[in-house]
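How it folds:
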Amino acid sequence: MRHRFISKTAGILTAAAVGLAYVPFSVESGSAAAEEEQITLEQQFQQTQLSDLLGLAGITLQAYSVQSAGADHGLTDETVQILDVDHSGQLEIEDAMCFLSWYSDFFASGTLPPAAIQFLNTWSADPIETTAPVTTTTTTPTTTTTTTTTTAATTAATTTATTTVTTTTTITITTVPSTVTATATIPSNSGTSTLTTLSSETETETTTVSDTETTTSTSTTTTAPITTVTTTASTASVTGKWPVKSSYQGIDVSKYQKNINWTSVKNAGNEFAIIRAGYGKYASQKDPYFDQNMKNAQKAGIACGAYWFSYAESVADARQEAEVFAQVVQGYQFEYPLVFDIEAPVHAKMTMAQVSAITRAFCETMESKGYYVSVYSYASFLNTKLDASIFEDYDIWVAHFGVSSPSFSKAKYGMWQYSSTGSVSGISGNVDMDYSYQCYPNIMLRAKLNGF
């Protein structure tokens, strides 16, 4: 579920120019190499350093071109997961643009942006460090500085643990930033989502990458104090009445997280999970891990919702997608909404009226089957592609990363996806992180929705 990078100034234009100069050369020389040495796109990737952002952009664009022509790009699932920066589930031009955007920042300022550092930390053999401590501060909406005895209906207690980590790493870049400070204050959503109609509504993204023309090898050592604030999960059972709080911590997952230890996820403080059921308009596009994730998550005591990533190009397509979604989720009970994920490139090219009609067709179809639906997209898409009637009738789940609160004020949102690079015990690699501001389990139980 995916973050979109906004167009940048001169730095971006420079990076794009460099990227365009690189890509044709890369594709042509790659074709010649393939004829003489049979070098596949996967082999090109294996021979490319992750710090070579322009190289990664070129490979991503080649893979997208081959894929668009209806051929198999030959990249492994693991490679696709690395290059799929926005976690849309497939390689898009937006992924390449993300790499180029990172490069533009570096080209203009000589400093890698935090998102690029997170990418390298996630996928490099050794994490990249800076020459000064990297401090990450997270404030949860319900954190308190005093010790208080609470009942089941109040906010769970929070604990703070401080760990000092010392590592040494080597990465090939021109320079590294001297200091990176990322501070995120997570406020609660001041209002509530529309509940009067008891309605509700995930795979594309943007990428910016870059590489240095002249590189040197730099070895750095950093001691980084890491402060983590953890909120314990609700003690209520999945199907019982839940204590009402100002916010709840959760995640959203798909096949890209593969096998998940849901007990560890629960013990790490996560109270809910939105699980991908599939995408498109055919039953064959069901997420292969959906059933496994649903059964194991519910067994661990985690409240679940599900989402469907849309590629609908018409109202008829949207209704067909909803019918398939309903077939896939049949037989399950969901404490959280069933979500319509609309953000694909095809939708970005449509008018507000077209996107709104598609969204309403999907949501109305799911509502007619007794489901509470929510609409998910990134903040700028919600701001420009959906009309006011959608916000009046349906619950909203907004995605916006690296900010203290989403840049979305047209309606009260029920959930916020605040990161795509979270780390959770029980899950290997990155995972999307979310806050919920509604006690959805109690809503479903009272209204007898979502299989209850």
Q: What stands out?
A: Confidence is low (pLDDT under 50) at residues 1-37, 125-188, 190-237. The CA atoms of residues 238 and 303 lie 5 Å apart. The two ends are 27 Å apart (CA to CA). Residues 10-37 form the longest helix (28 residues).
